[in-house]
Write a structure and sequence with these properties.
alpha+beta; seven-stranded mixed sheet; 6 helices; about 25% strand; elongated; disordered C terminus
Amino acid sequence: MKPNFIHTYVSVDCVVFGFDYENRLNILLVQKHDEDDSEKKQIKLPGSLIFSEEDVDDAAQRVLHELTGIKKMVLKQFKCFADPMRASNESDIKWMGTEYKHDIDRIITVAYLSLCKIDHKINSSKYSTVDWYPIDEVPALPFDHNIIIKESLVEIRKWIESDFSIIFELLPKKFTIRQLYQLYSALSEKYIDIKNFHKKISSFNYIIPLEEIEKNVSHRAARYYKFDAKIFKKNNSKLIK
């Protein structure tokens, strides 16, 4: 029996997390423009088909550079999405034909997780509209992008459990313990008493207290801290449990 092979392409999609000044977890999304309707604008995850000469990891780095203007970012491949129905919506199929000018039966995407300090200036060379969206305010997205985001949250929790230092990629260079607590709580979905958390953090010599405190805040000003990656690596420290 002759096998029924599909005419398929491979793409990468990138989920970029950031942590904002209101202590919320955010995702970077871009605008998908419909040429047939200039008023119709839909947001999506940043992504691209892989060029013939590219390795999949190189394609992901290219997408991130085109998205942010940043050459080197923390990046992790976490899952392949290949459901035959992932692009079954009529508007998604039409968009693929317009965007790529090919007869594509299916796009299999390799998903990547990346972390970006939200105070980095986003200088996109490809997209005219790039915005941060709080994780709990992400609307319905095309294709299976909402599923990809859901899976990325599962992955980032595993990532931080295996390497706690990753969390500092999302924080400013100087941060408060409350900021660290709120970010860790948002990512891990664990309830941790803040007093116990503060006591635990105080025992880590790679989290360095600074002389500087918050200014112009309505609540009691908190001390700033910084993360010392060299001390962390030297100690091979245990994770928060």
